[in-house]
Amino acid sequence: MNAAVIVFPGSNRERDVAAALKAGSGKTPAMVWHAETELPDGTDLVVLPGGFSYGDYLRCGAIAARAPIMDAVRAHAARGGHVLGICNGFQILVESGLLPGILTRNKGLRFVCKTQHLKVERADTRFTSGYKPGQVIEVICAHGEGNYFADPETIARIEGEGLVAFRYCDAAGNLGGFANANGSINDIAGVYSEQLNVLGMMPHPENLIDAAVGGVDGLAMFAGLAKAA
Fold first, then answer.
1. Is it the case that residue 229 has pLDDT exceeding 90?
2. 113 included as an active-site residue
3. Active-site pick, 76, 117, 143, 204
4. Is residue 138 annotated as a catalytic residue, yes or no?
5. Catalytic residue among 60, 87, 141, 169
6. I need a surface site. Which of 28, 69, 157, 185 has the fewest CB within 10 A?
7. pLDDT digits over 65-105, tens only?
8. Would residue 153 show up in a list of annotated catalytic residues for this protein?
9. Which is it for strands 82-86 and 198-201: parallel, antiparallel or unpaired?
């Protein structure tokens, strides 16, 4: 698998993602600066990492969505190439029109940083081939504006077409309540594009890839991506 990690001013998880991609695939990804206009030849997967691109000015991800490299990312997705946006990367994807909905301030108006359980909604995509449907996994949450929202028609379409990737839950898989720390509608933690080749998610799977630092549930995503390439 040939992966490319896009680096914006203010990104701070690009090295974490690069380490996760190498752990899952055995290959070091290309690091692509936001001012570039083309992706490396043969790119299979583009990753937009977490952080605070452009200082979160205007809206989180709004300026990054208009960076020169994003035209190439949109073209890659249009050709069926895979794109993964994590945290700020998810915000960039919705701002760029590659995914529906918006991400607003957390319901408690506070930054949330904690271990988080997620329920895997489907395992028949390249992103989730390393999991089982309904499996509960552990990841890390670290965001202040991760409250996913969309209008009722969009939510009905997302739910009806099976485009919810993950939902916030507790360790037993129960939804709602304190398990949903940011207030996202329908406990949505991640969504797919209609073609299932673009995934945006707020939690960080790349931060749980080593048992020595808390767990390995995130590694299955990156290993699955490599295996399905």
1. no
2. no
3. 204
4. no
5. 87
6. 28
7. 999 999 999 999 999 999 999 999 999 999 999 999 999 99
8. no
9. parallel
